[in-house]
Amino acid sequence: MTDASPTQKRPARTPVSPPYPRGTRGFAIVAWSVALTCLLPMVAVAIAAGSGGIATISHLAETVLPRYALTTVYLVALVSIGTFSVGVGAAWIVTMTRFPGVRIFEVALVLPLAFPAYVLAYAYTFLLDHPGIVQSTLRDVTGWGPRDYWFPEIRSLGGAALMLVLVLYPYVYLLARAAFLQQSASAFLAARALGDSSWRAFWRVSLPMARPAVASGVLLAVMETIADYGTVAYFGVQTFATGIYTSWFSIGDRSGAAQLALCLLSFALLLAVAERVSRGKARYHHAGKQQAALPPVELKGGKAIGVMMLCALPVALGFLLPLISLSLMGLQSEQNLLSRRYIAFISNSLTLASIAAALTLVAAISLGFYQRLRPGRLSGTAAYLSRLGYAVPGGVIAVGLMVPFAAFDNALDAWMQVNFGIRTGLLVTGSIWLLILAYLVRFMAAALGAYEGGQATVHANMDAAARSLGQSPMGMLRRVHLPILTPSLLTALLIVFVDVMKELPATLIMRPFNFDTLAVQAHRLAADERLEGAAVPSLVIMAVGLLPVVLICRQVGKRR
Predict the structure, then answer these.
(1) Angle CA 246–248–58, to nearest 5
(2) What percentage of the chain reaches a pLDDT higher than 90?
(3) What is the mean pLDDT of residues 238-252?
(4) What is the pTM of this model?
(5) Beta carbons of 272 and 390 less than 8 angstroms apart
(6) How far is it, in rounded angstroms, from Cα 367 to Cα 361?
(7) Quick check: 379 and 429 in contact, CB under 8 A?
(8) CA 127 – CA 138 distance, rounded (Å)
(9) Residue 211, number of CB atoms within 10 A of its CB
(10) Residue 279 pLDDT
């Protein structure tokens, strides 16, 4: 056998370097710093809960834990059913039917999203409580005494569930409507041709195809429900959220608060995992090459009036009625938005929201761009860990950050006193920066989702063209991605800004001394039964909350 000539030899295979071998280390460091920061509260809560010992959890199990768990489960079940029914029903009506005012309702059904649930609680208490307008008018007209009639109690588990349903159903409505608009008419029309009624075809074909979107919307509503503190605290409903705050501040039981936070964290993560597992590997694809939109049905007469009333009901209950109620309360109050005190509340709220939104957006850009530069398990894990914060209630994040940083502050203070005779006090725990860090952990998923949604529209060929022109990763991000993604970046910035303005549990627990926000002021006045005064900061929070809702409404209008 003769030796092969040099021309016949196979050339040595050179290792293929991954894209952007240089310039990605900075993005990787920032991305993993954010991911580990988002993971820190959960790890800290688990460690702090373990340090409490069996005696604490045994005492909780014998006293308050069953009540907290049962009430939380009931509340989650009621909100899930309510948001599913209202959100899916409204989305199907405005997608599949045409009636007078349908274009208005397409947008109006999103408006209740501007209100925090605790603000609705103040408004409806002013209307429906025993000394409220409705019952006072009823007694004046009929001459009845307080014990001569029955009236539903608004300060109850059912009342809290109603408030949460009214402000959270837009999550389900938006996602379900987007899914219905993207569906092909082929499967639905085939079911109709096989003898199914419109209702049966919807239940057997259209709804299962929209299941991932609907489930995501309901899961968002559930996460907001278990994280809610203002509504349940004001209505006297004892859930895990109220239990954490009571254990931390009223009783001073840090280990008990940590163990309750761990229970709530486990419940939130269990819900997220259960939804993902129940979905399994199910996928839905359009079988035909042509994708015809679902044909809307023209409604007239009584049917048109009926669906108009159905669409108007959640808008009236979730937006118009609370707005009127709060306006009346605000006019009766003696609160002055231009006073030095209120200017301080507004300034504190805007400062926290602005800094938190800017830092969260920068962190989201670093995470999303790192995942684009280095697609794989490592970057995917960093993004996944960063999203976990949205499944963690604000009270849990507050406890999870306070425990390790308070230990750090105490250790630093002791070391400085021993070595230098200086008392440093609470450097980190008593600052706004730890509170801003809690906001970043809580709302990173929202900012990252908005950024990734815009990033998906940037074609990979643009990255290749930027590389061929000698652009570094930072140059490509600054000159190519950011200009294209400006609308998505503004949306992410605005969403986080408004969420911070409305956030109550973490702010109550972690705010520095004498550093109150509009949300804290509204909660304090409402807790003192000064509802007229609470209406003023609540209206400001609602007005700020309208900004992203208007953005969303514009996107809804462009779907057609």
Answers:
(1) 80
(2) 14
(3) 78
(4) 0.80
(5) no
(6) 10
(7) no
(8) 12
(9) 15
(10) 59
